[in-house]
Amino acid sequence: MRHLFLTALLGLASVSSLLAQTPSQIPLPSTATAAGGGGQRMATGKITGVVTDASTSKPVEFATISLVSAATGKPIDGTVTDERGRFTLSRVAHGTYSVTVSFIGYETYTRPAFTLSEQDNEMVLGNIMLKSTQNKLKEVTVIGEKPLVEDKVDRMVYNAEQDITNIGGNASDVLKKVPSLTVDLDGNVQLRGSSNVRVLINNKPSSIMANSVADALRQFPSDMIKTVEVITSPSAKYDAEGTAGIINIITKKNSITGVNGSVSTSVGNRSANGNTNVNVRRGKIGFNANLGTHQQYNNKNESELERFIKTGSTAEDFSSSLNQNGSSSRRGGGVFGQVGFDADLDSMNSISAGVNLYQGRFNNKGAQHSLTTYQDGTEEIQSATSSKNKHSSLDLNLGYTHIFKPQQELAVLGQWTKGAMDNSSGQDNDILQRYSNNPRLLETLRNTNEGGNREATLQVDYTHPFQNKTLLEFGTKAILRRAESDALYRRTFAGNPNEEAEPNAFTYDQDVYASYASYGFKLGKNYNVKSGARYEYTNLQGNYIAPFRPAFTDNYGNFIPNVMLSRTIKNQTLRVGYTQRIQRPQIWYLNPYVNENDPKNVSFGNPELEPELTHAYELGYSSYFKTSSINMSVYWRQTNNAIESIRNIVGEPGALPINEANWQKQGVAYTTYSNIGKNATYGLSLSGNTKPMPKWNVGGSLNLNYINLQSTFQNNAAWQYNVNMNTGYDFGKGLAAQFFGNYSSPRPTIQGKFSGYYFSSFSVRKELWEKKGTLSVGIDNPFAKAMKVTSELENRNFVQNTINQNYNRGVKVSFSYRFGKMEMNQQPKRSKKSIRNDDAKAGESN
User: Fold this and answer.
1) What are the structural domain ranges in the chain?
2) 94-105: buried (b, 16+ CB within 10 Å) or exposed (e) per residue?
3) How far apart (Å, rounded) are the C-alpha atoms in residues 411 and 592?
4) pLDDT value at position 152?
5) Which of 192, 246, 606, 775 is the most buried (most CB within 10 A)?
6) Burial profile 222-242: b = 16 or more Cβ within 10 angstroms, e = fewer
7) Paired strand residues for 258
8) pLDDT at 209
9) Which of 632, 775, 799, 762 has its CA nearest to residue 704?
10) d(C-alpha 217, C-alpha 246), whole Å
11) How far apart are CA 658 and CA 662, in angstroms?
């Protein structure tokens, strides 16, 4: 517990001690400085005034007031106006000055030089009227188009709303097109070859991502997404977990004054979407709401599996073989809802609140034929499965921000999330033949699983600027999590009224307490440095309710340093960085319950898993030209105690023991997780955009990785790359077309490899009614009706090959309509404060 108190008190004491100082104690860029010696102070004066709009005579809040020295021509002090447009500069040393007043949307005002002296130590500037440079924007018109991909100092931004091939899809379709990201056949996301990523929505975690990121992304409508941010070198302000980095999905909303919104719908042969977005901002109050629905149908998959259990060095030397052929289909949908509110209480205080809701239901049906050949006979099983999966989530967040002066802010944030799932499945196994006796048995399996997760977060952040252009950030955070799983596995046989029941109830608590400090400063004119450190203390406990086992507990602390150095000259930026990351296993990695939905291929968790530790180094370069940009990074990521899935045969040499005392079935393959050893990734990331012609844009990216996996029982290493290309052409009169293509090469695993695959899409868009309406037609995967992925696994006990096909060729027609008028917002754009719980290893879709 002393670590817990140390972490919390360290951060809170730092904030309290700084805030407890009087204004004269806090370092301010004030001209009221002590003279020479003797402790005497300079004679000082005061400057006051009021800033108003020249056309409306209304006060202009948050206008920037700069006090400029007549001797040097440089600003030496400043402030901002309050809600009534008033400002005061106090304790100004006697001398000659000028004052400039500026604010977005207005011409800058300059007050000619004046003098403060012993006789005249107060200057009343009176009413300063600013002239507007632009009173209104054209109705629903976008001025200036962003590039599809932007490379910023600490992140790469993909502007999803600029890509017309995203219309009518889901979040998984969007992430396929983001440089550095790959999405496999099952919807699992990888960043630079690693699946250890954390997905956030609007800088915050969402309970919809808690159970399966892959499933959640398939259910999230693409029409709600504005941008996708990829952060590979997070600063100390971010949670330390997520070894490869963070993916932040930003949804559409608008902070421009007025009432505006959009309605969109999309219908295709595989899915249908609907979305409504409304934004309202009046004065100091803003409101936004988003309601979206997504339906999936005709999602079909086929699979083949061939496995040999070896007794010798050749494929003919085997004790048994297994051949499986199966097919499945998925149908269902969900509804998303988002509501946000923010208000400026006055010039220094603001509050915000938000609610996110999701409710979804999916039905799956499948059939599988299994033939096992032994040396003394065969076993044949025909299986029919069906399942119903319900998911719901609720996220509540509340924030308060106090601005002492520009860049000096205190933010207090709270969030509570709750997710629930209710899965029920049934399986009929028709055992057609068992060895040479030819019995016909009907085995019925029923599986129910009710689960949920709850998470509460409290976060305090403080930012303090200093006169020499340095910035100090520090804060503290607490995350309290609970995950629950209550499963019941039942088996019956034809002619036998007795039912075999196997319950499994498991709870998992994970509490993380953290404090951080980050310091940014300039070196000379062109160098920027940002360094920091974060300490995280983790306390976890797992409880087995049924069947009963002793609880397991663990607690540990991690000190996580990071540093980033960048150099900018004109349009070129060079940066180098280092950070550490950790990855904590979640409930699906830890629960030892044996999942027997496929009696020939079972899976279970490992409660003895330890967290991963990763060292990440990166060197990046970006350059911008008149119509082109190029971004390049080389990186090295070294992960110790890497968590990987492993497969083996029960009862064979080297197989791990299964924790179920009554479960030992010779010859059955199992999948579980283990800290295999080390995972080293060396990579190159290259992306760029250009405009060969004013109406033609071309962009692309390449990610090249050398992955080296080492463990005590098996090693593997190979090159892996991902390349994508997008191009668009504007034909004029509102008609445009865009094409996207992606290829991912084979990827190594500790026991084999997955094959490569490609994906493409093409869309045509026509704008209608003075750009208020948009009609588009798109096709996904036009050159192949299915994505096909093969895998190869091998160790000293078995050889296994699989083929999976996902039929994902789709055609869709989409329409959207934008409404409302937008006016120039006379309020400043406050920095958005939000909670980022990017600290848990997400599960993969199986």
Assistant:
1) 31-130, 149-258, 261-817
2) beebbbebebee
3) 41
4) 64
5) 192
6) bbbbebbbbbbbbbbbbbbbb
7) 281, 822
8) 60
9) 632
10) 15
11) 9
The CATH T-level fold of domain 261-817 is Maltoporin; Chain A (2.40.170)
Residue pair 642/678 in contact (Cβ under 8 Å)? The answer is yes
CA–CA gap between residue 16 and residue 412 (Å, rounded): 13
Kind plus residue range of the DSSP H or E element containing 554: strand 549-569
Nearest to 421 by CA among 380, 450, 385: 450
The CA-CA-CA angle for residues 103, 106, 112, to 5°, reads 80
For 736, residues 6+ apart whose C-beta sits below 8 A from its C-beta are 164, 728, 729, 730, 764, 765
Q: Please state, in angstroms and rounded to a whole number, the distance separating the CA atoms of residues 413 and 457.
A: 8
At 29, the amino acid letter reads P
Please report the pLDDT score of residue 13 as a whole number. 41
| Architecture of the domain whose range is 149-258 | Beta Complex (2.170)
Let me know: does 614 contact 583? Beta carbons within 8 Å. yes
Rg for the chain, CA atoms, rounded: 30
Q: How far is CA 548 from the centre of its chain?
A: 36
Q: Whole-angstrom Cα distance, residue 615 to residue 611?
A: 14
Helix-strand-coil percent breakdown of the chain, rounded to 5? 5, 65, 30
Could you tell me which residues come within 8 angstroms of residue 2 by beta carbon, excluding any fewer than 6 positions away? none
Residue 567's nearest CA partner among 513, 530, 519 is 530
Separation between Cα atoms, residue 585 and residue 241, nearest integer Å: 10
| pLDDT at residue 243 greater than cutoff 60 | no
Which residue type occupies 170? N
Of 31-40, 414-423, 774-783, where does mean pLDDT reach its minimum? 31-40
Q: Going by DSSP bridges, is the β-strand pair 122-130/44-53 parallel, antiparallel, or unpaired?
A: parallel
Closest CA relative to residue 184, chosen from 780, 645, 755: 755
Query: Is 7 within 8 Å of 513 (Cβ atoms)?
Result: yes
With a pLDDT cut of 90, the percent of the chain lying above it is 18
Going by C-alpha positions, the residue among 139, 63, 144 that lies closest to residue 105 is: 63
DSSP one-letter code for 223 = G
What CA–CA distances, in Å, run from 111 to 47, 85, 125, 126, 302?
12, 17, 8, 11, 75
Strand partners, 206: none
Distance of alpha carbon 634 from alpha carbon 577, whole angstroms: 11
Threshold 0.85, pTM exceeds: no
The tokens for 222 are: 């693409």
Lowest pLDDT segment from 54-68, 101-115, 201-215, 400-414: 201-215
Contacts for 100 with CB less than 8 Å, ≥ 6 apart: 65, 66, 68, 75, 108, 109, 110, 111
Token pair, residue 148, equals: 């599809």
If we measure between CA atoms, which residue out of 407, 536, 535, 412 comes closest to residue 472? 407
Answer yes or no: are the C-beta atoms of 826 and 53 closer than 8 Å. Answer: yes
| DSSP SS3 for 301 | strand
pLDDT at 24 over 50: no
- CA-CA distance, 204 to 442, in Å (whole number)? 48
pLDDT in tens, 664-682: 465 678 888 888 778 899 9
- When pLDDT is cut at 50, 70 and 90, the band that residue 267 belongs to is very high
Which amino acid belongs to residue 659? N
- Please say whether the beta carbons of 191 and 244 come within 8 A: yes
152-156, 447-451, 527-531, 792-796, range with the lowest pLDDT: 152-156
Give the contacts of 590 (CB within 8 A, at least 6 positions apart). 508, 542, 605, 606, 607, 609
- Count the neighbouring beta carbons within 10 Å of the beta carbon of residue 333: 17
Identify the residue with better confidence: 109 or 468: 109
Q: For residues 534 and 557, what is the distance between their CA atoms, to the nearest angstrom?
A: 11
* Tokens linked to 802: 């699989």
pLDDT at position 452 is: 85
Per CATH, which fold does 31-130 belong to?
Immunoglobulin-like (2.60.40)
